[in-house]
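Metallo-beta-lactamase domain-containing protein
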Amino acid sequence: MAASPTVTVSALDAGQITLPEHMFVTDADPEKKNLVPSLSFLIRHAEPDGSLTNLVFDLGVKRDLKYTPAQQNELDTWQPINTDTDCAQSLRNGVADAIKTADVAETNGLFLDPAKDVDYIIISHAHWDHTGMPSDFPSATFAVGSGTLNLFKYGAGPAYPADLFNDDELPALRTIEFPPISRTGIYGNEAYAPKHTPLPEVSQAKPPAAAAKWAWKPFGELPHTLDFFGDGSLYVVDTPGHIYGHVNLLARLGEKKYVYLAGDCCHDRRLVSGERDIGLYDDGHGGLRSIHTDTDEARSSLHRVREFVKKKGEEGIEVEVVLAHDPVWRRENAHKCWPGKM
C-alpha cells in the first residue's frame, strides 16, 4: 500500500511583537509583557513530476512598519516591535540559529528567492502582524478566507472600521478566496460581516488543480476543512472567532504525524493545554472584550482543536500544535526553522 502524500514544514522568523499578557490569558500579571515571534511557515509539496511547490503561511510583520494611520496609532500597544528579520529574508538566507542547529552550511547564495520560488501564500487572517510584505512575492498566488478582501476594503462593524486596513493589502488579481461557509447563529451573519469576493474573470491567480473541487468537509472533530492540494497532505481549517476569514492549516508530515498551524486561534500555549482561559480586558466603553471578535466562537474553535488532537492521540497519531506567537516553541525548536524542518 502506497504511503499517503505528505508535505514538509519549516518555521520562518517574520518579526517580533510585544503582547501584554493580561490581554490574552486569565489570571495574568497586569504589568507583564512578552516579546513574541510572529511566525511564518514554509510548506513544501512534492509534485508527481518530482518538482516542489512552495507555499508560505502568513507573512508576519512589515519590515518598514508602514501601516495605515489608524494602525500606527495602535502600534504603541505592541511595542517594542522588531523587524530585523522578516519573512522574505528568512526564505532567502535561512533562520540564523536554525542553520547552526541543523548543521547546514552558511551560504552567500539563496535558499529560496521570494520573487520567483514561492507559488502560494495563504494568509491566516487580516491582522497587521500577519500580512507582511506581499510585494516581496510578485509571482505568488495568494489565498485567504472568505470575506477577507471585503474586510480589507470596507472593514467589519465597530470593532474593525475600514481605516484599520489597507484596501489594497493583497494583489487583487492574484488573490483567491476559499469558498464561503453557511453558518448558523449570529457570527458571520451580522449585517456588517464581510461578503465573499468571487474570482474575477480577469484574475491572474493560478490556484492548484484541486481548487476546481474545493469543498468544506469534516475531518474528525474539525467540521470544515478543505483539501488544498487534493491529496490529503494539507488541509485548510475554518477557525471562526478571532476575526472574519480566519483559517488554520493542518499538514501531514508522515503516516502518524501532523502539525497544526493554529494562527491566532489563541496566543498562549496555556490555552491549548487548558491551564488558562481567554483573557478579557476593558473595551473602552465600560465593558469587557477579548482579543477575538467573538470570544465564545473563538473558545469553541479552540475546543475543537483540543478534541481533534486528543482523539488523534488515542489513535496513535501525533498532532503538534504551533501558534503564530509562541516564544517558548520558537526558543526550543530552532532546528524546525528553515532550512531545518519539522
